[in-house]
Amino acid sequence: MLLVCPASADEQPDPSLLTLDRIYGKREFESKHLSARWLDEGDAYLTVERADGGGQAIVRHDAAIGIKQTLVSAADFSPTFDSAPIRIDDYAFSTDASRVLIYTNSKRVWRQNTRGDYWVLDRSSHELTQLGGDAQPASLMFAKFSPDGNRVAYVRENDLYVEDLTAHQITPLTSRASPEIINGTFDWVHEEELFLRDGFRWSADGRKIAYWQLDTSGVRQVTLVNNLDGLYPQPQRIPYPKAGETNAACRIGVIDLATSETRWMKIPGDSRDHYIARMEWAENSDELVIQQLNRLQNTNCVMSVDADSGEAATIHEETDDAWVNIHDEMRWLNSGKQFTWISEADGWRHVQLVDRDGAKPRTITRGDYDVIRMLHVDEAGGWCYFLASPENPTQCYLYRIRLDGTAAQRVTPTDQSGWHHYDVSPGARYAIHSWSGFDRVPITELISLPSHQPIRSLVDNKQLREKVAKLKLGSTEFFRLEIGAGVELDGWSITPPDFDATKRYPLLVYVYGEPAGTTVVDRWGGSGYLWHQMLAQQGYVVMSFDNRGTPAPRGREWRKCVYRQVGILAAQDQAAAVGAVLQQRPYLDADRVGVWGWSGGGSMSLNAIFKYPDLYQTAIAIAPVPNQRFYDTIYQERYMGLPKDNVDGFLNGSPINFAHQLKGNLLLVHGTGDDNCHYQGTEALINELVRHNKPFTMMAYPSRTHGIGEGTNTTRHLRELMTSYLYEHLPRGPR
Q1: Are residues 372 and 469 in the same domain?
Q2: Cβ atoms of residues 618 and 726 within 8 Å
Q3: Contact, 572 vs 624, CB < 8 A?
């Protein structure tokens, strides 16, 4: 039986039924989240909270006893006595907590809001001062206090400045020789693929600033066209190195603030054919530690660089036949003589201790399981806290182990299945713990460590939980699926609420399938999960499978067997999974099989319906990359190698080369302002489909970016389009 939505908008909606309007229009099912940060002093954390009478206040919470103290009131954030308080997008205290740096009026740069206005509040005088002098509104980036709190450095129009907070004097630290130079921040590809945005670091003594400089001259550009904001189109040109093309040159400079002179570090290698993926001061003011990837990204060279001479020396090196990863889990121990490192050298992702003197690394965690993430090192107590799930890679739990590799123990209670996240306090006595499951609404609580005893609830999402409890939801299942040659994939399934195993149902597969993400995880999926449940209410079975090559915690071989064959092995695994469930589950209708995905999942959906036209009848591909040559150097070359060295891989992994095999129904969706997976790729695919006289449906969202979320009603419109297309081309309900 189908669960039909109310016919009239005037009727009282059935609380058990999901609709597009409830999910994406009224947004009834949005969960609440806590944004908190631990103070360095250890046992207290800060939140930004709405104040009585309007505005926001910064509040200190004592972890042990729960006492709240307003550190900065909303009134302090008003530039004048009769003006409204400025909105807090982010904040930072000086080391002595006498000043507060406020980030507001933030604007998006590529994926995130990293440009805006900055104000400094003197807490004793209550004076609020805007930084930047005569700078244009929302033009400053990454402002940071000096260690003594008397100055702030920031990026403005791709140059570095420092502002004295007493004299209010602004000193330029760099001066670009050409518009192609970027100081202290990054171009598109470094931000997207190496997660680099903030590109400078104060030394601990406040006398120096180390920074990245990019030279994008010689990097070919893509052009995005905005047709919405004026009588004439407005082009935007972005340096974007596509696979096999020229990269920006990158180097590291150290500014002596006494002279404003830059000394360039002597990093070996061709600056256009390696990536300086990480750079930090090495727990002192004399040397930097950088992680340098070669262009193929199969070697990560950790170097110590003398800030005065610029000389670099290798202190550790990680290599792999496929690719290596950059690390944000590097922690200094033993007065800077050791650091933590994450390695897959034994076939699993484990925590190591590396000595600076070059001794063989010592592995702390051992066994046939992956460390999902190292969270915290309690050096005083001798413990390392990390996330893992040795028995079930779709879940995530907290563990700890002695720094000598003994006494490993699970900290998360065994009766709390699902996905867990922890923000551990500096002294490892407490953690802010968030927990959800596939069908379980998220909660956040404060717990003690290592007992995991709850201290107090921080976010219970009670209203959302009650609303979800009223829904008539389909049954969900996580399972392992054998696809041949001993390979088993993890999958999940949602069946209709009134499921009848004697009938046959259409199957919709949700796919991603690339090395950047997984879909089969036992955690709350928000609106996407509820849309799938809505489809189940309308008579669909929805499934998802994680093929080999996805970053699931199933060992190095699982993740890296896809090397040089992205879009090839994954498509085979996905098709084998569909074939297996059709054979094993007779209630699935082999004549009604659909697939949908976004970004890499859009590419995978194209590969599915093009390469296996007799298996999939309908596909929805959103923001895909039809030709891998059109995507960027860092991502595509990491997993595929250089195009000139892997011609067959790029050809066979790119769905555009199989468009002539299309038989079923295809909906293409793309934002014309997508700076990530360019609309150009979809136009090239359209041209190929036209050349082969293949019918398809296409929707372009003007000037929308990769998430297709800008503009009034866009998300609702997109989901309406997707749902209607499925109703028409993958008929719902049992037969």
Answers
A1: no
A2: yes
A3: no
Domain end, chosen from 412, 440, 459, is at 459
The reply to whether 380 and 488 lie within a common domain is no
Tens digit of each residue's pLDDT (9 = 90 or more) over 509-564: 999 999 999 999 999 999 999 999 999 999 999 999 999 999 999 999 999 999 99
Pull the structure tokens for residue 297: 């990204």
Are residues 599 and 470 part of one domain?
Answer: yes
232 to 135, 225, 298, 374, 705: CA distances (angstroms):
28, 10, 46, 51, 20
Q: Are 697 and 619 in contact (CB under 8 A)?
A: no
The one-letter code for the residue type at 177 is A
Position 84 confidence tier, pLDDT thresholds 50, 70, 90: confident
- Residue in 709, 669, 703 with CA at minimum distance from that of residue 686: 669
Residue 5 has pLDDT above 70, yes or no: no
Amino acid at 496: P
Last residue of a domain, one of 438, 459, 480: 459
Does some domain include residue 90? no
Structural domains counted in the chain: 3
CATH number at residue 344: 2.120.10.30
Give the dihedral sign, CA 570/679/614/476: positive
Instruction: 158-167: list long-range contacts, CB under 8 Å, 24+ apart.
Output: 158/182, 158/183, 158/184, 158/185, 159/183, 159/184, 160/184, 160/200, 160/209, 160/211, 160/255, 162/209, 162/257, 163/131, 163/132, 163/133, 165/99, 165/120, 165/129
pLDDT band at 608 (very low <50, low <70, confident <90, very high): very high
CATH number at residue 635: 3.40.50.1820
Q: 137 lies in a domain?
A: no
In this structure, are 292 and 196 located in the same domain? yes
Query: Looking at the domain assignment, is residue 604 inside a domain?
Result: yes
Q: Tens digits of per-residue pLDDT, 8-19?
A: 444 667 999 999
Distance of CA 406 to the CA centre of its chain: 33
Q: Can you give the CATH number for the domain in which 182 is found?
A: 2.140.10.30
Please give the residue range of the domain that contains residue 398.
335-459
Please name every residue paired with 231 in a beta bridge, in sequence order, or none if there are none: none
- If you search the block for the tokens 């995005």, which residue do you land on? 224
CB atoms within 10 A of CB 77: 25
Q: Which residues contact 415 (CB under 8 A, 6 or more apart)?
A: none
Residue 428 confidence (pLDDT) above 80 = yes
